[in-house]
Amino acid sequence: MHLDHGDSYPHRHTHSAEPVRADGTRRALRVGLGGPVGSGKTATVAALCRALRAELSMAVVTNDIYTREDAEFLLREAVLPPERIAAVETGACPHTAIRDDISANLEAVEELEENVGPLDLILVESGGDNLTATFSRGLVDAQIFVIDVAGGDDIPRKGGPGVTTADLLIVNKTDLAPHVGSDLDRMARDAAEQRGDLPVAFQSLRGPEGVAPVADWVRARIAAWAVR
Ligand SMILES: Nc1nc2c(ncn2[C@@H]2O[C@H](COP(=O)(O)OP(=O)(O)OP(=O)(O)O)[C@@H](O)[C@H]2O)c(=O)[nH]1
Ligand SMILES: [Mg+2]
């Protein structure tokens, strides 16, 4: 049987484009943010833009199923100039567009680099999904999985590839823990058990520290990227 699908078959990307292009310029570090619906992905993206935009050349791609709502929120909040915010309407299960057929997202990332580049950092927000959603390594270089304390303090224990393998796990909305009866120590213990040495950030975007620890994690990734 001949299995040559030519150009019409969705290409499976198993690794990203090289950091340094043929002409010697360096492409942006691409960081994906995934996680369940409403956990705080867009709020984290907005806070990261505010924290890092003075020191890094940044852009954002948002994924929504049927709308451009997340991009519109970021535009309204003016976290970046409008030409640095792109929306992909996935029209299907959100994980398909970040894992299986990543072509629309890759196109959005490459167009941003072309139109507003050179860029240091592109954040790609997945549509809200479930605990199994992860990004293709052909789309992003690092991924952050965002869960929140209101989703239940047993989420880290339940595992799933987002919780166990993401380069950074954010447990968001810690300010709500007392109101919803979530035990943060238990979440920290369970997360450590699932993730070994991989880092976990407990975050409240309503608190004084806000996104600062996650912004520091991004800075460290950028520093490592610059010497690759
Ligand atoms: N109390 C509290 N609320 C937060 C925090 N972070 C985000 N929120 C709120 O949680 C709600 C959902 O946040 P979003 O950032 O839209 O969540 P999302 O993960 O992007 O949602 P989808 O894209 O729809 O999956 C919003 O009302 C945010 O203001 C936090 O640290 N504490
Ligand atoms: Mg969102």
Automatic annotation (TrEMBL):
Primary location: cytoplasm
Subcellular location: Cytoplasm
Keywords, sorted A to Z: Chaperone, Cytoplasm, GTP-binding, Nickel insertion, Nucleotide-binding
Alphabetized Pfam families for the sequence: cobW
CobW/HypB/UreG nucleotide-binding domain boundaries: 31-200
Coiled coil: none
Residues involved in GTP binding: G35, P36, V37, G38, S39, G40, K41, T42
Region described as Disordered: spans on this chain: 1-24
Cited PANTHER family: UREASE ACCESSORY PROTEIN G
Function noted in UniProt: Facilitates the functional incorporation of the urease nickel metallocenter. This process requires GTP hydrolysis, probably effectuated by UreG.
Quaternary assembly: Homodimer. UreD, UreF and UreG form a complex that acts as a GTP-hydrolysis-dependent molecular chaperone, activating the urease apoprotein by helping to assemble the nickel containing metallocenter of UreC. The UreE protein probably delivers the nickel.
NCBIfam families: ureG (TIGR00101)
Family: Belongs to the SIMIBI class G3E GTPase family. UreG subfamily.
Protein name, entry field: Urease accessory protein UreG
Organism whose genome encodes this protein: Streptomyces cirratus
